[in-house]
From TrEMBL:
It comes from the Eukaryota. It comes from Glareola pratincola (Collared pratincole). One of its GO terms (cellular component) is nucleus. Residues 1-232 form the Helicase ATP-binding domain. One of its GO terms (biological process) is double-strand break repair involved in meiotic recombination. The gene is Brip1. SMART domains: DEXDc2 (SM00488). Pfam families: DEAD_2 (PF06733). This is FANCJ protein. The keyword Hydrolase applies.
Length: 236
């Protein structure tokens, strides 16, 4: 029969009450954390998802967060090497009277995965699989991956998506109460250092200094630009 003579019975009641409180706070639904799996490179994500396919958890809803460099399928933006992010934002804002056809088709990708999940045909996938499907459905793989994060149980991404607060904010990642796994965590120190580092050439510094000279000489926010010019001078 049930134990009533020792503290374990009261402990069980406490646990039960706590879980009930949590359910009430969340509208009768207990909070289920997501697993955020961070890796050093996108290539490692491919290896992990390949292994995931071989396990009993292959049908678990998932997504992979990555940059536009890997997921953009717009013919003009994807062919640009330097400023894909800026070009994508301009298209979304319709700055030149044009919009992104693929962005407006994002729902096709997310609905496809939702349909697979409902029919229990869901399987672990890789970035290349998502991009290939995006091209077939004329749907943006970059924003589809972000939409899939809402219903995903496991989210794969590079380290900096979890470490860099600016990226977390832009990707709407909230790690409070979630499970975070860092693959090969000994690389975290280098990754953290890189995320707050910036490389600049001497010619770039001199060009910036010339522009700041122009600003100061023409009394354009002179106080601010003099301080910036002093920084450039000290670095050169």
């Amino acid at each position: 029969g049930p134990c009533t003579e020792c503290s374990c019975s009261s402990g069980k009641e406490t646990d039960k009450n706590t879980s009930n409180t949590k359910k009430k706070e969340n509208g009768d639904q207990s909070f289920i954390p997501k697993i955020f799996f961070g890796t050093r490179t996108h290539k490692q994500i491919s290896q992990i998802t390949r292994e995931l396919k071989r396990t009993a958890y292959s049908s678990v809803p998932m997504t992979i967060l990555s940059s536009r460099d890997y997921t953009c399928i717009h013919p003009v933006v994807s062919s640009c090497v330097s400023n894909r992010n800026e070009m994508c934002v301009e298209l979304l804002e319709g700055k030149h009277g044009k919009s992104c056809l693929y962005y407006h088709g994002v729902h096709k990708l997310s609905e496809h995965h939702a349909l697979q999940s409902a029919h229990r045909m869901y399987h672990a996938w890789d970035i290349e699989d998502l991009v290939s499907l995006g091209k077939k459905l004329h749907a943006c793989a970059y924003f589809a991956a972000r939409e899939l994060m809402v219903g995903a149980d496991i989210v794969f991404c590079p380290y900096n998506y979890l470490l860099d607060p600016q990226i977390r904010e832009s990707m709407e990642i909230n790690l409070k109460g979630q499970v975070v796994i860092l693959d090969e965590a000994h690389n975290i120190e280098d990754c953290a250092r890189e995320s707050v580092s910036y490389g600049v050439t001497e010619s770039q510094l001199r060009a910036a200094q010339e522009e700041l000279d122009f600003m100061v000489n023409n009394n354009i926010r002179q106080k601010d630009h003099e301080a910036l010019r002093a920084v450039c001078c000290s670095l050169t």
